[in-house]
Amino acid sequence: MTTFPTVPADLFRFTTGPNAELHTAVLHAFGEANERLETALTLDDVHHELRRNHRPVSDEELKSALRSLRQWGLVDTVQHHATHYTSADDYERENLRHVLTRRGEAATAAARYARKIIGSTGVLEAAHLDAIADRLEELRTSDVRTYAALLELESHLDAFQTGVQLFHGELKRVQTQDDAKRETVAHLQTFVSDLDARKERIRQTLALIDAEEVRERALKSAHVRDELQWLQQRKDAWAMLTAWFEEQRIDELEDIARTVIVELLRALDRISEQRRKPTNTAADFRALASWFARTNNDDEAHELFNAAFGLWPARHAHLQHADGELIPSAEPWHNTPAVPVSPQLRRTGKQEHIGATGKVRDVEQIRRARKEQAQRERHELELAWQQLQTDGPIRISSLQELDHDAFDRLLDLVGRALAALPDSTGTRAASTSDGRVHIRLRNARGWAKITTQRGTLSGPDYVIEVQRR
């Protein structure tokens, strides 16, 4: 049974209670001073840090906070005897120096890490995978940088793990935000674009490394007190690395990313469809009627009518009456006889031109050629389906040489299946557009190569079952 070391009960007590904000600010002040290698602070030093990063407090408030932190074992007080003091107040302010204990350093680091995690967002960074692969290459080839490369490798693995965990937790939030959906799709597409090559590079390099020998080389330059504990920590980190890049686990991460891409794209499509409201003619006429009701006179009504129905001077304005001299040019159009307008002009914008009837072509030869082409294509299609039909589930990698037409049909079928959602067993199903051929597909956790007359294609292996109906 695995046992875990317990955390001291008072370690995070400074984060609760009415003075939690002041206690946290004081520890933060010590933490910032430690970064500048100022390990011991006087009362005035702490006052200065609080004024700079928090708010001014009185001596009594600060002394009370330091007493509480000292009771919880987070701060200790030491004396400085190198100076002569002229008063009791000077003695208290200059002689007493306050330092963080080991527990205080741990509490400060934990609080900073918690704030960092709360304020960070989950990402799947392909750069971490590249960095992991680079550090593994260094472990194989460089003895000088073994220790540094090993620690950098663990750091990149930890960052990758944290990003995956945070990203997985944020997916529910993404489902409710349209902008986040689009950003997530773009991010995931970038992550999975070259994931196959990255994970294969890491797996191959891991297979070539002797982990025990790497740890022994790193230990020579580590200069640690507890060698057994250090070696166990490195062993645990290496086990985590190999577990992450086992074939099944990293492939599951890729499957999750691709599934999320499909789901988010479908959600965005549904949102776009909802925003594209169909044209409602009745609503348009009601709006037009309200506009007519707001016109002030007939001229405005005529202008609105012309704008709404497009009855401006049009293409048929050049048409004339049979005897145009009988009608004065200044005569209003509504007092003149109508001019016949060709329906062809209204429909296409062109006048009818009556000409000689074209010769009727002999289409018998065209029909015969098309019939022969259709028969040939049907025969090629039957041959392709015969090549692809399986008696049961098979791996794509077991298909040795395919006719290029059959290869095209296979790619189309596999593409249709990958676009479909998997069922509870991880199986995807799809059919051709005519429904005559059906495919069932599931992951095979491997790599496949298919050769045709035009070359070789390599990609993820799948178990497929192709049936004709």
From TrEMBL:
Domain of life per record: Bacteria
Name of the featured protein: TIGR02677 family protein
Native source organism of the sequence: Lentzea guizhouensis
